[in-house]
Amino acid sequence: MASSSSSSSTPLGPPVLEKLMGENYLLWKAQIIPAIRGAQLMGYLDGSKKAPAKTIEVEKADKTKEIVVNSAYTQWVAQDQTVLRYLLNSLSKEVLQHVLSKTTAFGVWTIETMFSSQSIAAYFSKMHALGDELAAAGKPLEDEELVSFIIAGLDADYNPLVSSIMTRTEPMSLSDLYAQIMCYDMRLEICLAPAMATNSNLWLM
Predict the structure, then answer these.
(1) Distance, CA of 65 to CA of 58 (rounded, Å)
(2) CA gap 202, 53 in Å, rounded
(3) CA 105, 109, 111: angle at the middle one, nearest 5?
(4) Which residue among 78, 165, 167, 200 has the highest number of C-beta atoms inside a 10 angstrom radius?
């Protein structure tokens, strides 16, 4: 009975089939995002759903005031821990050891930037190999064509960068594209850092 109740109270569904390791980030992310987005819990993952105040002041019937636990905070913690548990269960032992100190879903999700960079490098290598294979088969691709294929394969997180590249009038080389994507990843990491610190402080209050 207990396990049935626990299962029905979890909005994220069954655990993912492919746990995150060093080389399968894109496949892992493709499983994680739809489940969390479908449960309308993305705010806990990307840090946009901030923790409410832990306590609030209420006025009693006799007009005196009292500090009580904020029910909105309690609900936030419950939802956040649901997402956190789902994430932790989706990590391999090798990856899990890097996030053992994280206490929120957003804290764990920040590891995504590290694997994103690794995946981009692997993605470029794979596309280069594909280009080499086509050249060997007598059907070489121009750099501009390969750049278009690479851009088309990027996920939605890179939409702002893709839009910027698409408005260029001059063609972009593969090396420039790689540099642009890596800089974009670094910028995302820098922008995420303050939000991560804020969430951590709220959690520890």
Answers:
(1) 6
(2) 8
(3) 140
(4) 165
> pLDDT in tens for each of the 205 residues of the chain?
344 433 334 578 888 888 998 678 878 888 899 999 999 999 999 899 999 999 999 988 888 999 999 999 999 999 999 999 999 999 999 889 888 889 999 999 988 767 776 677 777 777 878 888 888 888 888 888 888 888 888 877 788 888 888 888 888 888 888 888 877 776 766 665 554 445 545 554 5
Q: pLDDT averaged over the chain? A: 81
Residue with tokens 């596309």: 127
The H-assigned helical ranges of the chain are: 2-8, 25-38, 42-46, 71-89, 93-96, 105-109, 112-136, 143-152, 159-166, 174-204
Distance, CA of 101 to CA of 105 (rounded, Å): 12
- With vertex at residue 194, the alpha carbon angle to CA 156 and CA 55, rounded to the nearest 5 degrees, is 110
- Rounded Cα distance between 28 and 129, Å, is 23
- Bridge partner residues of 80 (DSSP): none
pLDDT at 1: 39
In contact, 172 and 76? CB cutoff 8 Å: no
Instruction: Give how far Cα 151 sits from Cα of 134, 156, 166, Å.
Output: 18, 11, 9
